[in-house]
Write a structure and sequence with these properties.
With 358 residues, the chain is α/β, with parallel strands linked by helices. It has 11 helices and 13 strands. It has a single domain, classed as Alpha-Beta Barrel (TIM Barrel). The longest helix has 19 residues.
Length: 358
């Protein structure tokens, strides 16, 4: 356990590269579509507001490319880190290592990597072999980014080559952020990741997951850090925050929500199903416990709940997670640019924060 009152935590924001930005969920507006200009503005706002990191998500069919975007935005940033999502199987691992090392140099060492255990576009693997490929990808990528030559013989990769000449600023691999609730996902995370990411759940369920992952990591002689991905809706009063939440879904019908969720390639994963089950346990207004609202999940595959409340309530909720051992938050809200400013105004200055050290 950590002390949520005293411990420093990484506070990250989210850039809507995967075409996920709305004023009203399910109502598409051209100016909020995934584009270089729109996503650049979100990242630069988070940079100015003092967030530690920002997730650049990746989806093969959705929005714009995370790695290309990172290369474009890197020279425009002052202090923020980039958490760049990469999808296993889409890029040849030695080339991916060169790209990540180059990005890390462009960012003066401010790079972290979100590993996504994805299918290759157009192909489909069962869960076990897909995570086996992810394990091999992470092992090879870590070795190359640590500057080590490799002689690797696996089920998916057989490589014997020298580490690329380009290297990270520190000469070490950036942190790997990784998430997943299935049995193979948890095992790969315990063995190969640095920061285990979770989607929203009730406090008791978060604690159970943390306990399980600590035990699994201990079996590999490792220690994991933990991150929590959740939306936020913070306003001056609780009534205003709840009204903003209700307004967000005021024009959303269930059919439209089903279509939005089905667009994601991971819409049938264990984690996505768990978000649906969380919604089913909520009350008539969508709250599953104090200040945790599941309405966003009606139109989103993946992270499907928001912390909703006034600044003190949102801060208290975050500190409850910190008390359980959460060391990193990846936050977002709708529209992402506006909520980025609101959270920075009302809550961020009250959180002791700084980027996680590799």
């Amino acid at each position: 356990m950590s002390n949520g009152q005293d411990s420093s935590v990484e506070v990250s924001w989210f850039s809507a590269l995967c075409d996920d930005d709305y004023r009203l969920l399910g109502v598409h507006e051209p100016e909020l579509k995934s584009s270089w200009n729109h996503c650049r503005d979100i990242v630069q706002a988070a940079d100015r507001n003092g967030y530690d990191n920002i997730l650049l998500p990746s989806g093969y069919q959705l929005g714009i490319d995370s790695v290309a975007f990172a290369g474009g935005i890197a020279p425009l940033l002052e202090q923020i880190h980039l958490l760049v999502a990469v999808r296993c199987g889409e890029l040849w691992v030695p080339q991916l290592a060169r790209q990540m090392a180059t990005l890390d140099q462009m960012l003066d060492g401010r790079l972290s990597i979100n590993i996504i255990s994805s299918d290759i576009p157009g192909e489909k693997l069962e869960s076990e072999p897909r995570y086996a490929r992810t394990r091999e990808t992470m092992q090879i990528l870590r070795s190359l980014l640590n500057g080590s030559d490799i002689d690797f013989q696996g089920d998916f990769y057989n490589l014997s080559l020298q580490a690329p000449v380009v290297h990270t600023r520190s000469g070490r691999c950036p942190l790997f952020y990784f998430g997943g609730l299935s049995e193979p996902a948890r095992q790969v995370a315990a063995e190969c990741s640095d920061v285990f990411l979770m989607w929203p759940d009730t406090l008791d369920q978060v604690e159970k997951i943390l306990q399980d992952m600590r035990a699994r990591a201990d079996g590999f002689g490792r220690t994991l850090r933990f991150g929590y991905r959740v939306h936020v809706i913070v306003r001056e009063t609780e009534a205003q925050a709840r009204a903003a939440a209700a307004h967000l879904v005021s024009q959303l019908d269930d059919d439209a929500g089903d279509r939005i969720r089905a667009k994601s390639l991971d819409s049938q994963s264990v984690g996505v199903r768990a978000q649906g089950e969380l919604r089913e346990r909520s009350d008539v207004e969508g709250f599953v416990e104090d200040n945790l609202w599941t309405g966003i999940g009606r139109a989103r595959s993946g992270c499907g709940a928001a912390i909703v409340g006034d600044p003190d309530q949102v801060l208290r909720k975050l500190r409850q997670y910190m008390d359980l051992g959460i060391e990193a938050f990846i936050l977002s809200g709708y529209p992402h640019r506006d909520e980025c400013d609101l959270f920075a105004k009302y809550v961020l200055p009250q959180l002791p924060h700084g980027a996680l050290a590799a």
